[in-house]
Design goal:
The chain contains one helix and 13 strands, in the order βββββαββββββββ. With 168 residues, it is mainly β. It has a six-stranded antiparallel barrel.
Length: 168
């Protein structure tokens, strides 16, 4: 049985606040996904699954009732938690799959090997790939224009970075 790994998920939003008197929470989602049966919240860097009893509200700001969360006092403790989504279920664009490639080698088609992807940083308006290149930490935007291919068999990410990008 495969264990649940944070690397298999991407951050799709946050728990904004407690809602109502039965333990519901309001989410703010920054990805176009459809929550159905399960919601994964991040606790101490690990995804924890919660069964969704019901969903209401808008697609971008759903209000959900999670099994086992029965009061506002408990649901308030979830405020600010990251909402995660299995990366393999997001089908739009290569950049959406980067959450699954920590530990892969980043290779630029002109520069050659850049380094090993060490982490993914979720900034307010951009997801960044973190690696070391020539002894310095480098942040590379995770955008489809830069990611040409992800090869799971070879554990590589083929990049097409702009000329001079790594010299900054």
């Amino acid at each position: 049985m495969k264990s649940i790994s944070r690397a298999d998920f991407i951050d799709i939003g946050t728990v904004q606040k407690s809602h109502g008197t039965k333990g519901e929470v309001k989410l703010i989602l920054n990805e176009n996904v459809q929550l159905k049966k399960w919601a994964f919240l991040e606790f101490q860097g690990k995804p924890v699954p919660f069964y969704i009893e019901h969903i209401s509200g808008s697609k971008e700001e759903p209000i959900i009732k999670l099994e086992g969360i029965e009061s506002p006092a408990i649901s308030q403790q979830l405020q600010g938690k990251n909402v995660l989504y299995p990366a393999n279920l997001i089908k739009t664009g290569k950049a959406k799959k980067v959450g699954t490639v920590i530990g892969y080698r980043l290779i630029d088609r002109f520069f050659g090997e850049i380094g090993v992807l060490e982490a993914i940083q979720e900034l307010p308006h951009q997801t960044m790939l973190v690696c070391h290149y020539k002894g310095k930490e480098v942040l590379i935007p995770a955008v489809d224009d830069f990611i040409m291919d992800i090869d799971s068999r070879k554990k590589t990410v083929l990049m097409n970075l702009p000329e001079g990008f790594l010299e900054i």
